[in-house]
Specification:
With about 120 residues, the protein is mainly alpha-helical.
Amino acid sequence: MQSHALRFIQPRAAQQAGIFGWNYNRANFKFDQGLRWQRYTVGRHMACSQVGMFRQDVSDLAGVSMSKLKVYGPIYGIVITVCVTVFVEGRSGLKFPGPPVFISSIYLQCLAIGMSF
């Protein structure tokens, strides 16, 4: 009689354990789905923020060059004006006699090399 009772109790216990296991796993799955979506959206927001920071870094780096060129541009304009004047006239001052030709040619070559860089 005792073995007959055990046979009846064991399937019922297995059924209850199976239902409990199913419900437990289902609850964990639903909970994990919420966390998974949250991790996904947080990751997307961080990626978008990272792109924005990269663009800001690029504009900052370009801003350094632009601010330097705002200073160097007018100075280079003045220097190029003097260099063109020297190239056209052959020397910088016309009040006194010119230097020997070989010195003038060395000077003009140095001036041309400096102007090309």
